Amino acid sequence: MNQLMVTPQENFQWTQALKGKSNTPNANPIFTFPLRTHKGVDSQFTDWLTEQLTQGRQRITKPTIQAVKCIAINLACAMNLGTDTGFVYSLGKRLKAIPKRFRREPYSRDTMNALLTQGEQLGLIKIERGFKSENYTSGIPSLILPTETCINQARLLEAHEVTDISVPIDPLILRNNPYDYVNYSDEPSTLRMRKSIMEHNEVRTSYNWVYISEDNRPIQLSQSDLSCRRIFKGQWCIGGRFYCDAQNLPQVVRSTITINGEPCVELDYKSMHPRLLYHLAGLKAPSDCYDIEGIDRDVVKKLALIATSTSSRLQAIRSAAFHLSMTYEEADNALSLFQTRHSCISQMFYQEQWKSLQHQDSLIASHVLDTMTTLGTPTLPVHDSFIVPASSEGILHDTMSEAYMRITNFEPVLSRSF
After folding, report:
1. What pLDDT score was predicted for residue 285?
2. What are the DSSP calls for 256-312, one per residue?
3. Do the domain assignments include residue 95?
4. 380 and 265 inside one domain
5. Fewer CB within 10 Å, N or C, the chain?
6. Total structural domains within the chain
7. 209: buried, middle or exposed (CB in 10 Å: 19+, 13-18, 0-12)?
8. Beta-bridge partners for 43
9. Is 133 exposed, middle or buried (CB count within 10 Å of its CB: 0-12, 13-18, 19+)?
């Protein structure tokens, strides 16, 4: 059961924290995914969990039931994805309430917190409280793991139906961090952006999108899965990327998507962010910005992300060492090779270029989506790539080229993912 479309990642902070707590240096790594707040599951397991979590309540409201359904599917997903897998969620009571216009879930944070606390008291889940960590100024969210008692009830999941419990939200979001949303007032530019997003969503969700799950079952993507939000970070000139749940499908699963029964294709901008740095500076870029002799391509991609996301080289070295399991010396050498490969733009590294790069790629994506929507072609953005029916590949290719040239005056390099 991975209809939450999550891919658990090793959580290095929690892996190290729990190793230290148990004094077991060889403890298994912890894998986590963020709590998915807007889906639930109807099953005997949910009925059992509802009974447990609502003990002693005289009145059980619909939002409470929806919250239990949400907990049930997240626990089920964690159990299905393997041992030492849990979900992370911030239990902080001092967090600002998310304005209702941006809240996808039909229940309050207080309701979710109370149910999780009840589950911990009953021994159904284990909660490791969040903590402050170096380079994480907002703190590490709490870790929630199913206990043996909960795992033993997994047999009740044999008959289940995943349901969408989301409520409509404002798709244009301005926030300072994932827990601090700005309840802004509209102006002409925000009205235009919101109108465009809603038009894109309307065309996309009017088609039937189906993928083949990893256990070989056809799964239909819901309207909520396909509806994008555009998220800006602190200012309207930072970020602005399009996000939706369908983007979280692994590429191998995305390749199985059919749109009204037609196979799809995915085209992407090759090594987009380094190339944008070259082109926005008026320089010609290498054909493949991630090609460095002696370094694995995936490692180079991570080095590029680190070099454009950090605010100093020291921070970049620490980040590379941490995320790539390197010593500081190895991280320093790897970053030096990356700088040498891109000496023409190296002066722009370690200056949090992600702020402007994500904004620029969002402007390109917006133009692509505007054009494809005008043509009535359903298009799913995956940040620097786009999925369309196979018959629309040529139109998408031309549209992506034109959108990129409109921003940079350079031709992009496009590739076909599948």
Report:
1. 96
2. T-EETTEEEEEEEETTHHHHHHHHHTT-PPPS-TT--TTS-HHHHHHHHHHHHH-SS
3. yes
4. yes
5. C
6. 2
7. buried
8. 160
9. middle
Taking the CA atoms of residue 392, residue 394, residue 396 and residue 401 in that order, the dihedral angle to the nearest 10 degrees is 180
Instruction: Among 164, 180, 201, give the residue marking a domain's end.
Output: 164
Using one digit for the tens of pLDDT, what is the confidence trace for 355-405? 999 999 999 999 999 999 999 999 999 989 999 999 999 999 999 999 999
Asked if pLDDT for residue 219 goes beyond 70, the answer is: yes
pLDDT for 361 equals 96
Q: Give CA–CA dist 369/388, Å, rounded.
A: 11
How far is it, in rounded angstroms, from Cα 11 to Cα 145?
13
Beta pairing partners, 177: 180
* Torsion angle defined by CA atoms of residues 388, 389, 393 and 394, in that order, rounded to the nearest 10 degrees: -110
Residue with token string 């077991």: 24
Average the pLDDT over each of 266-275, 316-325, 407-416 and give the range with the smallest value: 316-325
Q: Is the pLDDT of residue 18 over 90?
A: no
Q: Which domain holds residue 265?
A: 172-271+355-416
Task: Give the span between the Cα atoms of 196 and 201, in whole angstroms.
Answer: 9
Q: Comparing C-alpha atoms, which of 103, 243, 247, 245 is closest to residue 170?
A: 103
Q: Of 164, 199, 228, which one is at a domain's C-terminal end? A: 164
- Whose tokens are 């003990």? That residue is 55
pLDDT digits (tens, 9 = 90+) for 88-133: 999 877 677 889 999 999 999 999 999 999 999 999 999 999 887 6
Max Cα–Cα distance, the chain, nearest Å: 69
Q: What are the helix (H) ranges across 324-392?
A: 328-341, 354-374
